[in-house]
Structure of Iron complex transport system permease protein:
Amino acid sequence: MTTVEARPDVRRRPVRRPQRSRRVTGLVLTAAVLVLLVYLSLAVGTRTTGVTAVWDAVTRYDPDNTDHLVIRELRLPRTVIGLLAGAALGLAGAVMQGVTRNPLADPGLLGVNAGASLLVVLSISLLGVTSALGYIWFAFAGAAAASVVVYGVAALGRDGATPLKLALAGAAVSAAFGAVTTAFLLVDQATFDQFRFWQVGALAGRGTDVIAQVAPFLLVGCVAALFLGRVLNTLSLGDDVARGLGAHVSRSRGVAAAVVVLLCGSATAACGPIGFVGLTVPHVARMIVGPDYRWALPYSMLLAPCLLLTADVVGRVIARPGEVQVGIVTALIGAPVFIALVRRRHVSEL
């Protein structure tokens, strides 16, 4: 009589997805890193200060103390606007990539930057606007107008605004607006001198008045974007499957586009066009939590300010006593990171 040994269970267990607790822990750790970067943004610069000076400048401000004056009047506003703009760009990039199902989607692809730039140039050349506060509303209006034009053009036809038509319409509108902007700059040297300081993308030189203007739009946009996770998950399945699940694809895509306009328009108006933040950060978030946008969105909201504040601090350190604007540093940091992501992960599936 032979005995039959129990065969080991050779069935492969399903791949374990990141657990909720791990995701929450990751969010907490990311928030802790962001707090550290906020401190560095307040302390590091041409004149580096210690922890005590930063704490006293925030809680017991003395206008006769030079360190307190630098921290409160110069570094605190740029840190706050870095937090707000970073969160907006990260969320906008994630929503834009989700709604277009295009891993390379960013504000430049859908014409947001081109529209904002064109209206800023027109405001300088025709109306004589010269302040950052004055650029805000024109940049916001240009970004909104460009997005409406892109979505309207893409929506023409029987299939509506498909991801491919959105990308093609965005590229066409960006090229057209860019040509008009260049034409104005070539014939007006004074406008070019004013415009180039806004176009480079910077957190410096923006005071509390700029924050007060854009903060309501940024906060509303961020809250609205965080509620789009389930919608983006449905759209990521494809239009036919989404319709089969009962989703109103055109309406969902329109709401998401409106949120992107609100976020990108406000951030671009406040800081100028800053590239690679909205393009790179959503990929990092999806590498951590997978394709579930209910988690990718909050991760993008925290990771993007980390990147923006890091770039701002690095820009102050590498060119002392001057500084390199944050838009240049994000391009230098973001481009290699994005290339590495593409080479290693072949771009996360959307």
Residues 1-11 have pLDDT under 50 and may be disordered.
